[in-house]
Specification:
This protein is about 65% helix and about 0% strand. The protein is mostly helical. Helix 1 runs antiparallel to helix 2 and helix 2 packs across helix 3. Pfam families: HEPN_RiboL-PSP.
């Protein structure tokens, strides 16, 4: 089942495409304004992807931790507890799910520490993604290498557009190529979304 965060991202990207991506011309016929609109799409779409990942990770953390007091162990709950205790370098490390502390104050502290980590994220490249999803208990096999490479490329391209004036026309590519890159990322995010749900729901 698609998360509400992924549904929001798909809708937002469709709106940005409708507003900013012009199609139907030869690549050398697009105006300077149309190329600048495509660059705006790159920046705003990248921001939307970053917001999705951050919001989705926060929601997964909350869900995984909330199940613990109900006697429903989750991979995310156990993993976040380990992450928190190791980060603090204090407390007994729970080696199995049955040993995970379930006191409300403790779980609230774990969640607050994780949210603070998420809020400190700036940009969303491959390293940022791993730093957010690994504490949630995602196995390495659920972190798509192709997605990581795409996020790294998008981050580099976003930084170029954000920190210097770019003449996109020199790339000799149509504005729709900006959308194609984002669409490919959106497709792979569906698998990540499902993996986050599995980790937050199952032990």
């Amino acid at each position: 089942m698609t998360s509400k965060e992924l549904g929001w991202l798909g809708q937002m990207l469709d709106e940005l495409k409708a507003d900013l991506i012009v199609t139907g011309k030869d690549y050398d016929k697009y105006s300077r304004q149309e190329h600048r609109m495509a660059l705006s799409f790159r920046l705003l779409a990248s921001a939307a992807v970053e917001q999705y990942v951050e919001d989705r990770c926060k929601a997964a953390a909350r869900h995984g931790l909330n199940r613990l007091p109900k006697g429903q162990p989750t991979r995310t709950g156990h993993s976040l507890t380990l992450w928190y205790l190791i980060k603090r370098d204090k407390g007994v490390i729970p080696l199995n799910a049955a040993e995970v502390p379930k006191a409300a104050d403790f779980l609230n502290a774990v969640h607050a520490a994780y949210e603070n980590t998420v809020n400190k994220t700036h940009g969303m490249d491959d390293k940022d993604l791993r730093a957010l999803v690994i504490p949630l208990g995602l196995p390495e096999t659920d972190i798509d290498g192709v997605l990581c490479a795409m996020l790294k490329d998008l981050s580099n391209e976003r930084n170029k557009a954000a920190h210097r004036l770019i003449n996109r026309a020199k790339s000799m590519t149509e504005p729709i190529e900006e959308w194609n890159k984002i669409q490919a990322i959106l497709y792979l995010l569906k698998d990540l979304d499902a993996a986050l749900d599995r980790a937050a729901t199952n032990s």
